[in-house]
């Protein structure tokens, strides 16, 4: 149970990062990206191939993020001056193009060249060696501090909606309270699993701590950016790019920055995805992963970073519960069970679009859905 919770925590943190990059591009800037997996693929392969060449893991991951950002630069220069639908077409094509190139080309794995279809294995993973007792206690202390900061931030986020007496804010407070309780209980469960995993050292527990720290840092900086003048320009571009143009803003430059930063974040997610799998193959990077990220954003609320993380939590909770209990309830074989699970989450999305089209934490007035 402890190992499974750690696995779910790493998966959720990785795809929360992945979805945060897409949310910056779509939720805040209005850029249609159906090939977000391309950035994750480049980030993952760059990280593991450089680490096999002896480059330290930190620099390998940073290089992966830079390469992913450069892909955003190339795509941006090719499409951002055209109509919005061109970006969607180019990105989905780029995602498949990169996967097929990796699958059909030889890759420099260590001192040899190996066919990409065989995948890449036996690469270094962070914190894979068992540390001494002092370092384990230090890691537990860092996890404890992260848990305290998370719970305190959730409490502040919930209580800020209580200061107004308007009906809409009261409704928002109720939804925030429910979300805060759910995320708080999950944080406690992950904290307990992490403490046990770090004390009786499990390398995956170390990877979980690193993934949660990176997710917390990226979320913190994104929240700062989207509330800054830079973020307000992105929102103005999303609503009507002619307005910031009239005010003298370089809309193309802001779109390019958003595409590159979102791509870099997805590249970092790719590094964690590769480290969790311990071996990567081209088929690990199917287009479905992009649409999984879209599901997370739609569930939580487009243009809301906390909503994106909530969407990732809901998605992986749904995935774990249905994978465990659905075969016991529905008398179907494995293939049909998989199709049924996809169909059911589609039904959930349709109901959500009718009941709350802006997502669980999204705002109608901000996304022009109420106009």
From TrEMBL:
Keywords: Cell membrane, Membrane, Transmembrane, Transmembrane helix. It comes from Sphaerospermopsis reniformis. The chain crosses the membrane at residues 31-50, 57-78, 133-157, 177-199, 205-222, 259-281, 293-318, 338-355. It is found in: Cell membrane. One of its GO terms (cellular component) is plasma membrane. This is Inner-membrane translocator. Pfam families: BPD_transp_2. It is a multi-pass membrane protein. CDD domains: TM_PBP1_LivM_like. Its main location: membrane. GO terms for molecular function: branched-chain amino acid transmembrane transporter activity. InterPro entries: ABC_transp_permease (IPR001851), LivM-like (IPR043428).
């Amino acid at each position: 149970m402890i190992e499974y919770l750690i696995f779910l925590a790493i998966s959720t943190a990785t795809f929360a990062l992945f979805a945060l990059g897409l949310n910056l591009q779509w939720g805040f800037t209005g850029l249609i990206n159906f090939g977000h997996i391309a950035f994750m693929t480049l980030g993952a392969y760059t990280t593991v191939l450089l680490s096999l060449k002896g480059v330290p893991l930190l620099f390998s991951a940073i290089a992966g993020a830079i390469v992913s950002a450069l892909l955003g630069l190339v795509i941006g220069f090719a499409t951002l001056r055209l109509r919005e639908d061109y970006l969607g077409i180019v990105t989905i094509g780029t995602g498949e193009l990169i996967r097929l190139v990796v699958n059909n080309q030889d890759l420099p794995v260590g001192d040899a060249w190996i066919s990409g279809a065989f995948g890449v294995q036996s690469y270094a993973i962070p914190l894979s060696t068992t540390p001494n007792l002092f370092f384990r206690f230090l890691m537990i202390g860092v996890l404890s501090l992260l848990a305290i900061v998370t719970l305190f931030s959730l409490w502040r986020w919930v209580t800020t909606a209580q200061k107004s007496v308007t009906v809409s804010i009261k409704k928002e407070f109720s939804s925030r309270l429910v979300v805060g309780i759910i995320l708080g209980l999950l944080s406690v469960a992950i904290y307990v699993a992490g403490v046990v995993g770090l004390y009786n050292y499990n390398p995956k527990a170390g990877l979980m701590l690193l993934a949660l720290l990176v997710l917390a840092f990226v979320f913190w900086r994104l929240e700062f950016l989207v509330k800054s003048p830079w973020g307000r320009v992105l929102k103005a571009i999303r609503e009507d790019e002619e307005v910031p143009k009239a005010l003298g803003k370089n809309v193309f430059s802001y779109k390019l920055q958003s595409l590159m930063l979102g791509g870099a974040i997805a590249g970092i997610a790719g590094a964690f995805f590769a480290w969790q799998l311990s071996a990567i193959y081209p088929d690990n990077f199917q287009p479905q992963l992009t649409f999984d990220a879209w599901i997370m954003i739609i569930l939580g609320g487009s243009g809301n970073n906390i909503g994106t993380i909530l969407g990732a939590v809901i998605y992986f909770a749904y995935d774990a519960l249905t994978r465990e209990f659905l075969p016991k309830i529905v008398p179907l074989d494995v293939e049909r069970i998989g199709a049924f699970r996809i169909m059911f989450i589609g039904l959930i999305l349709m109901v959500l679009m009718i009941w709350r089209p802006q997502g669980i934490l999204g705002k109608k007035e901000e996304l022009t859905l109420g106009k």
